[in-house]
Amino acid sequence: MRCPKCGSEETGKFCSSCGAKIAVKGPRCRKCNSALESDAVFCAECGTPTGFKPEKPKAAMLPWVFSALALVAFAVAIAFFIRGQAAPRIGDMGMTGGLPEAPQGEAISGSAGGPGAPSGGMADLSQMSPRQAADRLFERAMREEDGGDTERAKFFANMAVQAYDQVPPAEIDLDARFHLGLLQLLQENLEAAQTEAQTILSVRPNHLLGLTLSAQVAAARGDDAAAKAAYSQFLESLDSERASGLTEYQMHGSLIDLETARARETTGSE
Question: Domain residue spans in the chain?
């Protein structure tokens, strides 16, 4: 900084040549009085700390904020799933009619879990095959629906549909089609649910679960005539179909019993 009187280059408060007072502008070092940059942390002349604490740019903090939010969301999702796994499984309730309940500590067999699938406590989907994981999520969605929590049921139904998309096509049998149909019906995707029903019936025209799904879709649409027709065919085929011993009929035995009663009520049959 130049002395305003004699023009000497000075760094102090007073000119060393003429003694004139030097006007100080901006921050100065408290030790040597050297001029400081506005954001200097240390004096460039003597190294004394200035006490200045630079602010971290807000933009630099955004990745950390997003990471923290993602971790919180992940933790909530895990807690959400674990909480549900502690509850009883479907058993013989509602729309599913129940996937078989394994005794505590034993593996669940069949399409609901497959050999080696865990039962009781927390389910580790990562240790399951794609079909086992999809069926477990289907169970969870149906259990929430049976419990009256439609919002949670739709949440898990969406997860289950996505899980079935990961199942190899060769493993998507008629039972899986029925599961998908119920999941779509739960989400009020009636066209998609009807498509699953038609796919089942195109393979086996009198399939009881396909007819059940078709009747439920018709009822959801308010098409009483179509629902009655599907239930009439259901009753006509009931004995012969049950005698076939299909695995899915055994898996959903209580559902078939419930639908039999509903079919008789709908059609006015004894």
Answer: 1-48, 87-267
CB 180 within 8 A of CB 161: yes
3-state secondary structure of 169: helix
DSSP assigned state of 120: S
Distance in angstroms (rounded) separating the CA atoms of residues 212 and 194: 11
The domain made up of 87-267 has a fold known as: 1.25.40
Whether the CB-CB separation of 141 and 157 falls below 8 Å is answered with yes
Q: Is residue 35 within 8 Å of 11, Cβ to Cβ?
A: yes
End-to-end CA distance of the chain, in Å? 108
Does the model's pTM come out above 0.70? no
From the list 166, 165, 140, the residue with the least C-alpha distance to 77 is 140
Q: Is 158 exposed, middle or buried (0-12, 13-18, 19+ CB in 10 A)?
A: middle
Give dist(CA 96, CA 182) in Å, integer.
8
Using one digit for the tens of pLDDT, what is the confidence trace for 30-63? Answer: 777 677 666 666 676 676 776 666 555 555 556 6
